[in-house]
Amino acid sequence: MITVDRITIEHHSEPLGIGEATPRLSWVTGAETPGWRQAAYEVEAGGATTGRVESTDQVLVAWPFAPLASRQRQEVRVRVWGAEGSSSAWSAPVPVEAGLLDPALWTARMISPTLPPAGEGGEPAALLRGEVEVPADVVRARLRATAHGVMALSLNGAPVGDDVLHPGWTTYARRLRYRTWDVTEALRPGANAIGVHLADGWFRGYLGFGGRRDVYGDRTAALVQLEVTLADGSVRTYGTDEGWRSTLGPLTRADLYGGETYDARRERRGWDTPGFDDADWDAVAVVPYDAATLVAPDGPPVRRVETLTPVETIATPSGRTILDFGQNLVGRLRVRVPRAAAGTAITLRHAEVLEHGELGTRPLRAADATDEIVSDGTAFTYEPAFTFHGFRYAEVTGWPGELDPTAFVAVVTHTDMRRTGTFAASDPLLSRLHENVVWGMRGNFLDVPTDCPQRDERLGWTGDLQVFAPTAAYLYDTGGMLAGWLKDLAADQFDDGNVPVYVPWFVADEKMPPLDAEAGWGDAATVVPWTLYERYGDAGVLRRQWRSMKAWTDRFAARGGPELAFASGFSFGDWLDAAAPDDQPWAARLPWQPVAVAYLAQSARIMRDAAAVLDEPGDEARYEALFERARARFRDEYLTPSGRAAFASQTAYALAIRFDLLDEAQRAHAGELLAQQVLADGFRIGSGFLGTPHVCDALADTGNGAAAWELLMQRECPSWLYAVTMGATTIWERWNSMLPDGSINPGDMTSFNHYALGAVADFLQRRVAGLAPAAPAYRRIRVAPLPSPHLTWASTTHETPYGSAAVGWTLEGEAFSLVVTIPPSTEAEVLLPDGSDPVTIGSGTHTFSCRFLAPQPPAPSVAFAH
Length: 866
Ligand code: RAM
Known about the structure:
The protein is an alpha+beta fold. The protein contains 15 helices and 45 strands. The strands form eleven sheets. Strands 20, 21, 25, 26, 27, 28, 31, 32, 33 and 34 form a ten-stranded mixed sheet that branches. Strands 2, 4, 5, 6, 7 and 8 form a six-stranded mixed sheet that branches. A six-stranded antiparallel sheet has the order 13-12-16-10-19-22.
């Protein structure tokens, strides 16, 4: 039986109110027949059909019909035929509905509340309300909204949607995101009340590491439009306007970094229901906005994704009470507050680690991460609305009576992406390392891919994502979220082509020196789109980013100067190399100039290949030439003719090997020297953010996998497993964020939740277990596992754009066996670790076995010294 199981519209999980008039379509086919391939398809939508199309395409297929009009809704269904004549039934229909594709359709006005001046420690949140009269014959109702700030919406007393911190963080001046919700069921004939709870968020709250507020403006505002379709097909719109009213709500303080103060005594019961008396509320001010900047989402919203309960209640040496949730996470606490005298204040402080048995808040720097709850005398449940904390531990003070840990849950909050990848292995530390990477991603994919989620920073550092994107794209479906972030990157790009070191960009600290084209950071402009192409087959993202990609690469090359000498200035370089002093994270073993030349070569190579995909022969030739120039520079300046690095370091060899800077003989020798370097470093990490993700691959690619294994399984600091042995449940910013004696690294930049060094997970998935893309979207897969006597088994799964793939192997003595499953319409090349010829397989499950003689880890060699 052939089935069409999952139709997706662009990268949308819920294609309601989308911004594309011609969204691309993808579908997954199910077929029991081994080796099944799609040979033809038919798509039907809104009464139109493509007829039978002879094509194997099923990922991001161009919209085959007339463009959707604003608000137009259609149901899409697909059927397919196999090469051997088999066919599927029609798939279940999937509705797709366009949002407002024409800015003129926005008739609502942007309104700003009138609020008392800020209290101590941050601004309060506002309530805004308006009422509308709707006719009885409404057949469809849509609410669209956005804000300067962050908002929660309600209609007739019930929440609208389950988004958290809407509209998230984009380059607001150019891209302000709105969302569309179906409110048909919640609307009633006659009077309806719309409520908006509005706080500062990224727009106006504390942002970055320089103590800045009001980054995007000094007043919050909301834009809400209700559109109802009547039985006769006519549409009426209502929305925020000067008739709305505002007041101060129960949140007397609400800030992303600082936390919230909730005063239950200030609740305005019934405020978002019709007929509420708002006579003592204030008028609102209409503020200007540009409807042309409003954009529909590319990815899913932020939601509450999971809850965790405390695993332990700790009494600290100083007599405080701390709840341990057993996992460093991002979100906030939901608290069942018992009855207490009105005015009783409960304080919740959050931190990632304990130090000397007490809450370790120093790494949070100026982020207070403190929530306060003030009782009104009743029992109620409270969860902050407009803040998030990175924490494992919460200190509770002021609790009425004996603390009841069952009154607390931690609500894990992040962009609600579909999970697509897993990895596990027989060594529990390695499995935990992988799990830590997953948690690190979850904590830092809260609308924007950030470096860290806890301190006064939480920025979309481009370098961090540049190294982590392949891992991210495997673990979760990031196709929509990252495509959206790349639009912000392009929108924030400077006129000279330079890419900001974080996106969305603003000046976080006036004292920060201006940064020139930053190797490894700005390269997110090329690497991330290329990763989305490679992993999801999204050539459209290359086309859309093409100008941005070119502008970056050209600017980066220009910084190098005619000789590509990168003669002056500062650069982050191989950031946070374990050898760098705690207060000089840029002082890596390898100077930044060779890193820059290598990364320039990599971007040029990506540009050459992307130009070929986009059929831009002029650019292809131009970037091939740039690649050759960068390669020549690297070889002339930083390499001996035999392939020895001038600045011997793991990063130098790893980048040279991975970025294709060597000829064949040099490459073999460089691989050997890298293995020797790793040995000389005591099988410990000898690299930073930019080098580390490439070291194991460079070893494995040159036949030195045994050295990669020693590095991977190392437990002494610096190593990946060191943090795991220290009880880490996320990836740290520094190799030694926590020192072996349990004290926190004294540097003022010490996060316990930073995904950059977790980029090694891509190696675990793609190489250790062995599931790699050999053609865009995994249409062709490469299965080349890297077994080791360190493990008796490893396995990985990935939901590819074509369907589920899985690789698992076992090793008992010398007996290696492998099970590979790949989805319909794909094929895989399987390379067994005995070095036998590759085998090509089609869809279905296949088993293999062979004898595996484990190579020895490197031993000291004279060749290294001479
Ligand atoms: C710090 C963080 C971040 C990194 C920058 C350069 O803010 O470590 O991850 O990208 O520095």
